[in-house]
Amino acid sequence: MNKRPLGRTGLRVSEIGFGAWGIGGAQWIGATEDESLRALNRAVDLGLNLVDTALAYGDGESERIVGRLLKERRADEVLVATKVPPMNLAWPASPEVPVSEVFPADHVVRSCEMSLRNLAAERIDLLQLHVWHDRYLEQDGWRDALLGLKKSGKVRFVGVSVSEHDADSAVRAASAGVFDAMQILYNIFDQRPADRLLPLCLEHGLGVLVRVPFDEGGLTGAITPESTFPEGDFRAEYFAGDRRRQVWQRAEALKTLLDGEATTLPELALRFCLSHEAVATVIPGMRKTSRALENCAIGDGRRLSEGLLAALKMHAWPRNFYEAED
Ligand SMILES: NC(=O)c1ccc[n+]([C@@H]2O[C@H](COP(=O)([O-])OP(=O)(O)OC[C@H]3O[C@@H](n4cnc5c(N)ncnc54)[C@H](OP(=O)(O)O)[C@@H]3O)[C@@H](O)[C@H]2O)c1
């Protein structure tokens, strides 16, 4: 597995990281702990060294499973990125809500302590605020808490998770000098982070973790007009109504671009993310060993050609399925 520097942190991270939302089980139905642990171990065997989880994933369940992984592996094999949930439990961040209701200092510290307990670890490699808006920069609380956690050694680096489809809400954070990393939704459908946010991250030495490379499955070609989801699975809303047909048509159109550079849609989707020079790692959601095998195989350092990237620009499809259907 090829590794890249995580911005200026001095860490080197595998091109493919492990998105561990799904193994938390609450919003993604179907994962089992043993299979999740097998998938994690297989990915690490294949050279993956970064797992992205969050206190909010299954109320700590994802972190606890990652903690089991840490116990089974050498200390230098796995880097853990986790997240502090907003105290008001509201995603995405609203610019109208003061940060005192979202990330007061004591909440940030308490959440970090809970994550450390779930992970059964003494320190967290990257602690991210799970929501963000640049208005927080002028407000107190979170900054002292994060810097204090760094100083105490409980946290090595700090970052933010940028709101879906709203890269502009974090452009000032990229140059604020507080954060070491940013987690950004960037995929073939939403290429807008490449306009401003990704170049800024590169300029200021922030490590970029790209999330949702498959548009929650839409970019794998697996979503068809007939797709159904288990009860309680968040994708029932995400791909509600006519959205399944729209996604399927877009994915079918992308298949015309498959050739020697990428032979499957998942490969095309991951290579697209990794072709931007600001990107350190892409973190597809994985729950099974087979997915770990397929995705880790893509982390070979190869980037898509300028010609294919130009063709992919024509397939951008900015929209927000996280919002309920009209
Ligand atoms: N606000 C935030 O900070 C935030 C929000 C969302 C996500 N994230 C992070 O980003 C990670 C990735 O996002 P995500 O999991 O939501 O979405 P995603 O990676 O875009 O898509 C996950 C879906 O892709 C499928 N998949 C994975 N590998 C595949 C392959 N090789 N071929 C075909 N299908 C494949 C999975 O299959 P299965 O159904 O078989 O598992 C799952 O259905 C999360 O796990 C989490 O760590 C963070």
Characteristics:
single chain; 326 residues; alpha/beta; eight-stranded parallel sheet; two-stranded antiparallel sheet; 10 strands; globular; binds NADP nicotinamide-adenine-dinucleotide phosphate
Descriptive account of the structure:
The chain is an alpha/beta fold. The chain contains eleven helices and ten strands. Strands 3-4-5-6-7-8-9-10 form an eight-stranded parallel beta sheet. A two-stranded antiparallel ribbon has the order 1-2. Helix 1 packs across helix 2, helix 2 crosses helix 3 and helix 3 packs across helix 4. It is globular, with a radius of gyration of 18 Å. The mean pLDDT is 97. NADP nicotinamide-adenine-dinucleotide phosphate is lined by residues 19-22, 52, 130, 161, 183, 211-217, 220, 222, 266, 283-288, 291, 294-295. NADP nicotinamide-adenine-dinucleotide phosphate binds next to helix 10.
Brief overview:
With 326 residues, this protein is α/β, with parallel strands linked by helices.
Please render the helix and strand layout as text.
Blueprint: E1 3-5, E2 12-14, E3 18-19, H1 33-45, E4 50-52, H2 61-72, E5 79-84, H3 105-119, E6 124-129, H4 142-152, E7 155-161, H5 171-174, E8 181-185, H6 197-204, E9 207-211, H7 235-238, H8 243-254, H9 265-274, E10 279-283, H10 289-296, H11 306-313
Parallel strand pairs: 3-4, 4-5, 5-6, 6-7, 7-8, 8-9, 9-10
Antiparallel strand pairs: 1-2
The protein binds NADP nicotinamide-adenine-dinucleotide phosphate (NAP).
The site of NADP nicotinamide-adenine-dinucleotide phosphate has 27 residues, from helix 10.
